Amino acid sequence: MTDIALGIDIGGTNTAFGFVDRKGNCLFEDSIATQTHKDVDLFVKEIYNKVHEALKKYNDVKLIGIGIGAPNGNFYTGTIENAPNLRWKGVIHFSDIFNKYFNLPVFLTNDANAAAIGEMIYGGAKGMKDFIVVTLGTGLGSGIVVNGELLYGHNGFAGEMGHVIITPDGRQCACGRKGCLETYVSATGVKRSVYKLLADNLEESELRDIPFNKLTAKMVADAANRGDKIALKTFQHTGRMLGEVLANTVAITSPEAIFLFGGLAKSGDLIFKPTRYYFEKNLLKIYKNKIKLLPSGLDDNAAILGSSALVWNELDKI
Amino acid sequence: MTDIALGIDIGGTNTAFGFVDRKGNCLFEDSIATQTHKDVDLFVKEIYNKVHEALKKYNDVKLIGIGIGAPNGNFYTGTIENAPNLRWKGVIHFSDIFNKYFNLPVFLTNDANAAAIGEMIYGGAKGMKDFIVVTLGTGLGSGIVVNGELLYGHNGFAGEMGHVIITPDGRQCACGRKGCLETYVSATGVKRSVYKLLADNLEESELRDIPFNKLTAKMVADAANRGDKIALKTFQHTGRMLGEVLANTVAITSPEAIFLFGGLAKSGDLIFKPTRYYFEKNLLKIYKNKIKLLPSGLDDNAAILGSSALVWNELDKI
């Protein structure tokens, strides 16, 4: 009998879920569209039915808990609170709804925190007690582990590095303020930087043929790899912003390592080189050349792994 | 028999020490000049002799431990490392030297961390698990408590909010970089801002008669209270810088309250009003009007209280 955790990653478009064992092997994986159900109860029921069916195929496993990573997930209350990308508005008592269907411990946190726990349990942060995971997706999230524990803070929403204001009166952010890091460093931030550079410069660029709504961060990376100057400058600028905020965050939390996770992190040297340069340039002397800046050690199913890791992390404490 | 802790606050000029009971009553207090002894061993011996003499006057007390707050103090190693304001250079194994003289547990940390523990044990943060203490002196220090524990980080030097870079290529900082918060928000920062404003503006000001080396933050506060426009603008600017960095730090650590400690904090509304304004203005929506910004609840002997509090905090854990 193998103990397994159900990991669920709720994204704006898709919700992925799967069974993961203690070593991080993903035995089963499936997904449903997040936005289909107006009624959140029916959304959970659909997951329950799929999980229930899947469990029948495994005789030798025992489901011991559920870990959920969700935008604006609050670990303390098991709620999803005013998530801008989800259709369920207000404060949703998500863990309670899962408890109606599953008679199992349910742990919920935001997706970046889940990624950090995943990194600690299965990934590159094994054995580390102080580290940061930065998730680079549509926005920028961060999970900060201090002294072996996730930093939740007083209200459960600590670790919002994406909403550190780096440029007062800078770019408009979805949070209602201006100049937040994620308006510069994220897939969306990269697009905005491309358009700013196209406006400010006269250089030829293949990106001049792509409308804003069609442009993806991947296209910018591909153009940069072909030597496109606007694309290269975009990554330089993105890395500068990220490096500066990471250096400031180090002064506050003193981590051993920082992991970059998500699509943008997969562009390799394009993002790592400038980020590392400006990170080191802005670090306090005592930290220079001492803090590892690494790609996430989680590969496929990273989001499911991260969510499932919550279960092991919490049950290990008991 | 009353248990007492010896609290020692090592400053650039004076070292204050005293006996403090569990409730925060300071039974005895004394100080020596920090810089007299080239040999750190003789410095510790002088404290030992004074403490030894003082103890003779109290029959009913039992000294149970020593808490030391020191610039660049490292809690993990009990060392003072490359403190710019002290004459003892390099890495000084301070706790070890104390152990030679006193057969007692010795706990050492930096002065801002000691202030934070003092706030938690005796001051306004009693019962709080997530809060920040900002010490405003010659420089700017911070002690960050998360989940009831000081945030030390991987190397023991977390919580250096004074070295968050707020203005890239801004004012030269003693740390070798530019634009650190403490070059704007500290007694020295206030002086620098006065001189910048005197240079940029034509307004009359009583501060135009005071040379840089004679000017103190207290003089600037007094001038502001008399309506001096340059002095008022200085506090406005100082509060803006502090409010912005505090709001960014809240996004990272999510505290319940922030306490301002030290000389500048005693200028009351002059510093609190602009700080609170820019703090609230820059906070993420979920935090607005929810985080207390307060003066330290420690009054006299605050530095000795803070250092002694380390003892209760650590011995309570055992």
Mind sketching the topology for me?
The structure is a homodimer of 318-residue chains.
Chain A: E1 2-10, E2 14-21, E3 26-33, H1 40-56, E4 61-69, E5 73-74, E6 79-81, E7 91-92, H2 94-101, E8 106-109, H3 111-121, E9 131-136, E10 140-146, E11 149-150, H4 187-200, H5 217-225, H6 229-253, E12 257-261, H7 269-282, E13 292-295, H8 302-317
Parallel strand pairs in A: 1-4, 4-8, 9-12, 12-13
Antiparallel strand pairs in A: 1-2, 2-3, 5-6, 6-7, 9-10, 10-11
Question: Describe it for me?
Answer:
2 copies of one chain form a homodimer. Chain A is α/β, with parallel strands linked by helices. The first copy, chain A, folds into 2 domains: 2-120 and 300-317, ATPase, nucleotide binding domain (Nucleotidyltransferase, domain 5); 128-295, Nucleotidyltransferase, domain 5, CATH 3.30.420.40. Helix content of chain A is 36%, strand content 22%. Chain A has helices at 40-56, 94-101, 111-121, 187-200, 217-225, 229-253, 269-282, 302-317; strands at residues 2-10, 14-21, 26-33, 61-69, 73-74, 79-81, 91-92, 106-109, 131-136, 140-146, 149-150, 257-261, 292-295. In chain A, strands 3-2-1-4-8 form a 5-stranded mixed β-sheet, with helices on both faces. In chain A, helix 4 crosses helix 6 (229-253), helix 5 crosses helix 6 (229-253) and helix 6 (229-253) packs across helix 7. The longest helix of chain A has 25 residues, at 229-253. Chain A is globular, with a radius of gyration of 20 Å. The mean pLDDT of chain A is 94. Chains A and B meet through helix 6 of A and helix 6 of B.
Report a brief summary of the structure.
With 318 residues, the first copy, chain A, is α/β, with parallel strands linked by helices. The first copy, chain A, has helices at residues 40-56, 94-101, 111-121, 187-200, 217-225, 229-253, 269-282, 302-317, and strands at residues 2-10, 14-21, 26-33, 61-69, 73-74, 79-81, 91-92, 106-109, 131-136, 140-146, 149-150, 257-261, 292-295. Chain A folds into two domains: 2-120 and 300-317, ATPase, nucleotide binding domain (Nucleotidyltransferase, domain 5, 2-Layer Sandwich), CATH 3.30.420.40; 128-295, ATPase, nucleotide binding domain (Nucleotidyltransferase, domain 5, 2-Layer Sandwich).
